[in-house]
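One thing: could you explain this record?
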Amino acid sequence: MATVLKVLKGHSKSKVSLLEDNGKIFVRKTGDISRNMERYSSLASTPLRMPKILEYHGESYDMEYIPNLDIKSYLSKNSVGGLLEYIKYVMNMFANQTIEADFTPIYKKKLAEFDFEAHPMPFTADELLAKLPQFLPFSEYHGDFTLENILYDTQEGQFVLIDPISTEYSSYVFDLAKLRQDLTCKWFIRRSDVYFDSKLEKISDELKVFKHFDNDYLLILMLMRVIPYATPLDKTFLNNEIRKLWK
């Protein structure tokens, strides 16, 4: 029987644990995992490094454990050059084959699902809809492309993507908007006493070559995705960021 060595950080009602069974160490994720498995399967045809899925149990899956630094720890010890090149590599790969698609129906569906009464915004659904770009490149994507979902393999010296998720926001443009949750709003260090402003600004400046990267309304849309799952303190953080971005 597997022994739990450590409970790791999970998102969106999922549980992630580090386990050992007969001397073998692995990671188990339990909960809302079907969309993770769909996206892992889709990205398996790319050269992107991701943890190997060892077993799938229906409500959980086991994957290889990779000795790593999270990006907060990585940035504390390194310059941004390697991370920046990795992000550009991933985004260029996703942008390599695209077709233009009208995302208006997706916007309308997602905004209709958002509870504006429980989570008041400084705008209506229609006002935000009018600001969002209608046509975007439909492409391969990660689905939750945050700095927290990038690890640095300390043995192999390379970056690893974790926790991809299938979503109707099926464009690398939304991945870039999701990344700005960390680069612009500094979500991943909201509870940390660290200062990465110049490093995060350098990454942002270099990523402006991608169209729509600077679109604050796409960023607002991504922040709204987090609000229903956030703690009261984090909801305050997200609401403050949204109010700063809304013009």
Observations:
- The chain has a mean pLDDT of 95.
- The longest helix spans residues 81-95.
- The radius of gyration is 18 Å.
- Residues 68-245 form one domain.
